[in-house]
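Lab channel / #folding
Pinned by the channel admin:
"Please post every new chain as: sequence first, then the structure tokens as a reply. Keep commentary short and put observations after the output so the thread stays searchable."

First post following the new format, from NK:
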Amino acid sequence: MRTTLNINNDLIKESMKLSGISNKTKIIELALIDFVRKFKRGRIKESCGKLKLKVDIIKLREKELE
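Reply from TO:
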């Protein structure tokens, strides 16, 4: 998809320098991927302790040893 964006040029240049990626599209895709991962991780952390799991640690250890 083609989109026109106004992005701080210094930020793009620094991102390209740090990553070694010389393609602006790839830099923005990488940033979006990182953004999505960060928020998905946050949602998982928020649910920590709220899920009811029935785990049999002995069975898990037996499977691990197989």
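NK: Residues 9-65 form one domain.
TO: also worth noting, Residues 24-46 form the longest helix (23 residues).
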